[in-house]
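Lecture 7 notes: from sequence to structure.
We start with the chain below.
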Amino acid sequence: MKKTNLDNLLSKEWIITNGIGGYTSSTITGANTRRYHGVLVVSMNPPTERKVMVAKVEERIIFNNREFQLSTNQYPGKVYPEGYRFIKEFSRVPMPTTVFEVQGAGLQKTVFMVQDSNTTVIEYTNTSNIGYQLWLNPLYAGRDYHGLLHERERNDFYMVQNSRYQVIYPYHGSEPVYFRHTAGTFVEGRTWNENLEYHVDRERGHDFREDVYSTGYMSCMMSPGAKVFLMFSTDENVMDASPEHLKADELNRLESLVPEEVSSPFLADLLVAGDQFIVQRRSTGGYSIIAGYHWFTDWGRDSMIALRGLCIATGKREVAASVIRTFLDYLQEGIIPNRFPDYKDDLPEYITIDATLWMFVAVYEYDLKFDDPAFLEEIYPKLAEIIDWHMRGTKNNIHMLENGLLAGGKDGIPLTWMDARINEYSFTARAGCAVEVNALWYNALKIMQYISERLRKKENTVITELAEKLKRQFGLSFWNADCYLNDLVTEDNEADPSIRPNQVYALSLPFPILSREQEKQVLENIAEFLVTPYGLRTLDTYHYKFKPSYSGDVWSRDAAYHQGTAWPFLLPEYFIAYLKVHDHSEEAKRQVEAQLLALKDHFYKEECIHGISEVFDGLNPLEGKGCIQQAWSVANLILLIMKERLNV
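Predicted structure tokens for the same chain:
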């Protein structure tokens, strides 16, 4: 079905983050299309425990005895108001800015957040020669960002007004929201805005209707060139700050994210987008990495993969070291957490076999970039502990076989990145010896050798001999007669010949485990069956389990998640392998640059403006799906472009 102009506008989203897990996000129309949208989404226990405090702000202008509503909402069976018709322009850089024009009257709306604070500021400017009355109505939610609010559940929204700002308590005992406006008069008028519909939630098989609350509206006479700021925060100290100064500080911060030597506008914009994922974690006092927005927290696997592009390649030495320390602080039996929970009373999860091994790759690339033997010395005991636990066996039946391969998994528990599961059913359990896990295991052993030599430790002949043994066994176990790598080998030596992208890591990781001729053959297999313009398919289209579309309810989407769905974060790994096999020739670089144009176009024009989506359909991929802004999707593009010095 062809999209209408409204459909097209509603499909384009934006997000701004605050460095502690909070954010502000909506569509370019201002209509919220999912429960995760909001003017102020706070993180109460950084970077987790997120709450939608302020859902949106309704705008209208009044002049010549006429009222024009600039907002857009979806209700059952209708769209009202239709303010999107007055949008003249939207720009994302440096801050999300919307320009409305109504019969010669112009209004510019700019949104930004205060870094390291749960604070959103909206600036309204009269850009025309016509004076008018501006009417602004904040709508509050005050609920968990995974949930929805309904009138029957809440009758609070207690408000205190002082001479400078308002304090709104969404419910008894809740954290307050502080609201300040720099001009105009506030008129109290309490009412529910009922039955807002979020069509993305409906498409994803979730509840999709919500009621939000208004305590009243702000009215201001706007002469030509006049400005008014709205400030929403859970930090009372910010209320006395100048919004003009806060904006200037944020503009300076955004500019500082791009080194002077970066000449590519695309790379510059990727660096700013990538910074959105770097957050402070209160529990450790250090840094961590959000896996994706809107709903992910900081995941071990995603953090270790994304760390290389977001922090190491970009020269953020202290941040990179802090992220590694954050996860090592939670080391248990040689395993770092796969996921930190949403809520402080819950415990971290350790359902992973590869996250810890990815950390070795991150440590290796960290040292190549920063030449930091002191940091290696600091973490060396824990690295040695990790290797030891993996050799003798640890959580979730992770253990080394006599032939050196690393196996893991039991009772359908998915330990690899292909971890979609509903209740006790796993769609891609992959118990046994996974191909990418053993490529990572080999690299972890080689990196441990490298670190030991760097620190002049006594040679560990067990690790040296094991690495050599594993390299020999890898080819024997995983090489398929059709010249690619089997995806999995069971402990009984039964091979799963499914053509999946996991084999790419045997080529893209730092330490080669195949011959150059084998690498070329694997690359050809991936190119023939798995490459799309936006990512690598998770399963070839001829496989009987292939799912062409990532859509529908939770079950349908999880069933397709790793059974054909294309993932952008894998594409740079393929290109790194491609350039390696082609000796980084100029012609190979030109080929890669040309093939990156589709993702570049997506970054600027589709779904999340200045973002890279989590996934695309496996067959006929056209639009981004899943998370609108995914850490490793952005990070691996940065890594590829900076590492290979591509001109994109």
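Points to note: The two ends are 32 Å apart (CA to CA). The chain is about 30% helix and 25% strand.
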